[in-house]
Amino acid sequence: MTTQIKICGLSTPETMDAAIDAGATHVGLVHYEKSPRHIELEDAAKLRRRVPEGVKLVLVTVAMQPQYLARCYEALRPDVIQFHGSETPEWMALVRKTIKTETWRALGLREAATLERARQFEDCCDLLLFDAPAKSLPGGNGVSFQWDLLQGWEPFMPWALAGGLTPDNVAAAIATTGAPLVDASSGLETAPGEKSVDLIRAFCEAVRSA
Ligand SMILES: O=C(O)c1ccccc1N[C@@H]1O[C@H](COP(=O)(O)O)[C@@H](O)[C@H]1O
């Protein structure tokens, strides 16, 4: 099965185009002021126009207020909203009723028990995104978790793998976990928030060769 690729934290036309040309199935924009990858709505809307049909735009949010979330949705019409904070299953369920788009819930995976707790999100989002546990930021810390926690796990819904993925380690991550979708951000940067076209290309190539 072909592994899907999300390149996240894009903020310039050049890197957005590079991700799309390199074969990303998903491109991500982070709208979270504390992040070095934060992009203002107006700039995000300009990048959104570069995304062709067939490639999904993912908006990464962290515990956003409902009214502001609705405003972001109207401005960008993302194909996916990624929730990367402490959003509860009840809150996710409410969002699902009011905003008709695909939703992902990120979960920091520290121990096997988290995989059990993940079940509470089964009916209130479309995909679980396993990432390393939060550090200074809720995500985008460039840190991998113990991938073998996912070995033998039986997925009960669509899922994806994030956390410190790079062109050098993504093949091993796929081999260990069987991830159907891999998501990379800070591992494709030369400095926080500065994406590298070469690293984006190398990552997509490494996923295809895995
Ligand atoms: O990228 C960020 O700055 C960010 C901020 C707040 C929440 C999530 C964020 N990024 C997402 O975190 C994962 C893992 O990223 P990394 O490859 O370890 O840097 C990914 O989904 C990013 O989109």
UniProtKB/TrEMBL annotation:
Cleaved signal peptide residues: none
Pfam families: PRAI (PF00697)
InterPro entries given in the database record: Aldolase_TIM, PRAI_dom, RibuloseP-bd_barrel, TrpF_fam
UniProt catalytic activity: N-(5-phospho-beta-D-ribosyl)anthranilate = 1-(2-carboxyphenylamino)-1-deoxy-D-ribulose 5-phosphate
Record-linked SUPFAM superfamilies: Ribulose-phoshate binding barrel
Pathway as given in its UniProt record: Amino-acid biosynthesis; L-tryptophan biosynthesis; L-tryptophan from chorismate: step 3/5
N-(5'phosphoribosyl) anthranilate isomerase (PRAI) domain sequence ranges: 5-205
Domain of life according to the entry: Bacteria
EC numbers on record: 5.3.1.24
Keyword entries, A-Z: Amino-acid biosynthesis, Aromatic amino acid biosynthesis, Isomerase, Tryptophan biosynthesis
EC supergroup of this enzyme: isomerase
Listed Gene3D superfamilies: Aldolase class I
NCBIfam families, alphabetized: PRK01222.1-1
PANTHER family (alphabetical): N-(5'-PHOSPHORIBOSYL)ANTHRANILATE ISOMERASE (PTHR42894:SF1)
Name this protein carries in UniProt: N-(5'-phosphoribosyl)anthranilate isomerase
Gene: trpF
